[in-house]
Design goal:
Elements: E1 2-9, E2 20-24, H1 36-48, E3 53-56, H2 67-70, E4 83-85, H3 109-118, E5 122-123, E6 127-133, E7 136-142, H4 153-157, E8 166-170, E9 186-189, E10 198-199, E11 203-204, H5 212-215, E12 218-222, E13 225-229, E14 247-254, E15 258-261
Parallel strand pairs: 1-14, 2-3, 3-4, 4-5, 7-8, 8-9, 9-13
Antiparallel strand pairs: 1-15, 2-14, 6-7, 10-11, 12-13
């Protein structure tokens, strides 16, 4: 399930050249492959890559009120520069197939923050934090869920230093429609599951995004900003075709902006 990817970024400080980021998104714990054994396997696979950073991109639980049942399973994640998270639509009780159905009652952002803190994970909800190394730093910028309209990239960026490297984590890839995304060097996103079902020639049957074909999966270029959309490690509906699950291990490289699959 681990996909190794290299992304070159001209604004990356030299001290962070070679930094690895393990990306875990869309576990949907509580559905078929998202039981205890499945979540433990995901944690083991992530730790086995020995990443510098682990980011959790939301929808870790399928039903928000089951967080006490499944979230403790993520406590074993380990990374040199920390484990960081943002929230997805399922954490807010929103159905992925329609934002008009209303939301199930679930934890507030402050309650989620305490849940993650108990696991040794820092939640970024429209916030930014620096990661420092050898006298240099990069900024990790986390936004709340775009799908349910809770994102505020502007507020998060105000906590950073202009001109310094910014890595944004967002559950939903439509964050790139924000006019201030040009100030971000790299966005990591999930939510789409890659489309789950890919048909020959036609591509994905359904993708929950404003630009489904462009943002279903993989590397996306928007102006001067790069975005990688992961296919995710799980799914709400237990069906995939020509679209396997994925845990990206992204190596950040200093250089002209480009991305390549490393095997």
């Amino acid at each position: 399930m681990v996909e190794r990817i290299e992304i070159c970024l001209p604004n990356l400080p030299g001290a962070f050249d070679g930094t690895t980021v393990a990306v875990i998104s869309d576990v949907h714990a509580g559905v078929r492959r998202g039981g205890d054994a499945g979540v433990r396997s995901i944690v083991e696979q992530a730790n086995a890559t020995c990443p510098d950073i682990i980011v959790l991109l939301g929808d870790l639980v399928h039903l928000c009120y089951q967080h006490a049942r499944y979230m403790p399973l993520f406590a074993g994640l380990r990374a040199r520069d920390g484990v960081w998270a943002c929230l997805g639509n399922h954490e807010h009780g929103s159905r992925w197939f329609s934002r008009h159905l209303g939301e199930r009652s679930g934890p507030s952002v402050d309650e989620w923050r305490r849940v993650y803190a108990d696991l040794g994970i820092e939640l970024l909800a429209n916030e930014a934090r620096p990661i420092e190394r050898d006298g240099s730093r990069i900024w990790l910028v986390g936004v709340d869920d775009v799908y349910t309209g809770r994102d505020d990239l502007s507020a998060a960026l105000q906590q950073t230093q202009a001109g310094e490297f910014r890595l944004a984590i967002s559950h939903h890839p439509d964050l790139v429609d924000d006019p201030e995304v040009s100030e971000v060097d790299l966005v990591l996103a999930g939510h789409t599951h890659g489309g789950q079902v890919l048909l020959p020639v036609l591509g994905p049957v359904y993708v929950s995004s404003r630009k489904p074909r462009e943002r279903a999966r993989g590397l996306v270029r928007t102006g001067g900003t790069l975005m990688y959309v992961t296919r995710g490690v799980g799914e709400g509906l237990p069906i995939r075709f020509a679209c396997p699950r994925e845990m990206p291990l992204i190596t950040l490289r200093r250089g002209e902006a480009e991305g390549t699959a490393a095997g």
